[in-house]
Amino acid sequence: MLPRGQTSGCLSLDDPVNGSTIAFKFPLPDRYARGSRRQYALLAVAKPGSSRVMEAASSIWSCFIRLVNCISAETENLLDEGRLPADVKMALDLTNVSSYLTGRTVDPDGFPRQGGIKIRARSLAEITGDEYIFAKIHRAFEDLLSELAERFEGMFVESHN
Predict the structure, then answer these.
(1) 16 three-class SS
(2) DSSP letters of 17-76?
(3) DSSP element (H, E) containing 97
(4) Closest C-alpha among 88, 93, 110 to residue 101
(5) How many degrees, rounded to 5, is the angle at CA 27 between CA 129 and CA 130?
(6) Contact by Cβ (8 Å): 62, 44
(7) Integer angstrom CA distances of residue 127 from 68, 83, 90, 130, 131
(8) Which of 46, 70, 132, 159 is deepest in the core (most CB within 10 A)?
């Protein structure tokens, strides 16, 4: 659990029966999400009996932080450029009304609301504006595994011969 008031940070769970999880939770700005933020987490999961996993936690968190900084920068650049998906642009033409009032047929000014126009949830690729974001994340995890395999002499990579 993160300390009270923090929306991002490092987490770890170590259970000798179920294995270990090392995570980094982070928010991304998305002005069309409730609260203008979406929450994400990067996870590294190890099988039970991987006793040296917690020794690698600082390396894993460092990798996660670098990755989150890149993702956040892409998101900020997209917001600064003002590029928006078509459904978001169309919805912006409506009167700005809180989600509490969306079920009503009339907006606060007394004008009929245009129903049926909703902003769909956006994927991480849409939020960052990078259609290859998942490939980049996958590559970062591959690099992390290679680094850990060298550091711990193959402990993190199993042979499937």
Answers:
(1) coil
(2) TTEEEEEEEEEEE-TTSGGGEEEEEEEEEE-TT-TTGGGGHHHHHHHHHHHHHHHHHHHH
(3) none
(4) 110
(5) 15
(6) no
(7) 13, 10, 17, 8, 10
(8) 46
The first and second tokens of residue 127, run together, are: 């939020």
Which contacts of 34-37 are long-range, i.e. CB under 8 A and separated by 24 or more positions? 34/99, 37/7
Cβ-based neighbour number of residue 148 at 10 Å? 21
> Residue 42 in contact with residue 60, Cβ under 8 Å?
no
Q: How does pLDDT run along the chain (161 residues), one tens digit per residue?
A: 666 777 788 988 888 888 888 999 998 888 777 778 888 999 988 888 776 778 888 889 999 999 999 998 888 888 777 665 544 443 444 445 454 445 556 666 666 656 555 666 778 888 888 899 999 999 999 999 888 888 877 555 554 54
Single out the residue of 34, 40, 33, 30 nearest to residue 8, CA to CA.
40
Residue 25, token pair as written in the block: 């939770």
Residue 134: both structure tokens together:
């998942």
